[in-house]
Fold this sequence. Notes:
Elements: H1 4-17, H2 20-35, H3 38-42, E1 45-47, H4 59-67, E2 71-77, E3 83-87, E4 93-96, E5 102-105, E6 117-120, E7 124-126, E8 131-132, H5 138-145, E9 151-156, E10 161-162, E11 176-179
Parallel strand pairs: 1-2, 1-6, 6-9, 7-10, 9-11
Antiparallel strand pairs: 2-3, 4-5, 7-8
Amino acid sequence: MLTKAKLRNRILLRLKAQKEEQRKRKSSIITRKLLRTRAFKKAKTVMFYMAFDGEVNTDGMIRQAQKEGKRVAVPACKKNRQISPCELQGNARLIKGAYGIKEPWPQKPIKLKDLELVVVPGVAFDKKGNRLGRGRGYYDRFLRRLPRNTATIGLAYGFQLLPSIFTTRQDVKVKRVIFA
């Protein structure tokens, strides 16, 4: 059996090797699927991740949410290894934060209880919603702090959906996974 680290490395290599044309096409399909979900339609405040390193692109989702008048949040990584949801307004400046991931500036934090949907990145998922992240635990710690009724949806390319993922007590599931 592969360790989490070996599995993570194997899938990250596939993410990087994926052709840009395929990535765009699949991201577009995933965007359409997300926009049709009940969770997205009814949410007034949605948190997206800022895609990097080959992840499913969230730009179109973010633009559509803003166009629909939804309040949009994206993560900012804090020094205490926590994620803070910060409002992403249409005219926000984006600066490189921790790990080179874009964050809005200035930061306007949003309360966790105000998030109705959180769109979650992952290196891999399984059909039960178990998630393999990048190994630092940021999202697991963040998801654990959310109110129970907050919808969580992971986004993945087909090759990132595995039959099962080994989990520990620290790992937090997402409620749904959308893939293409």
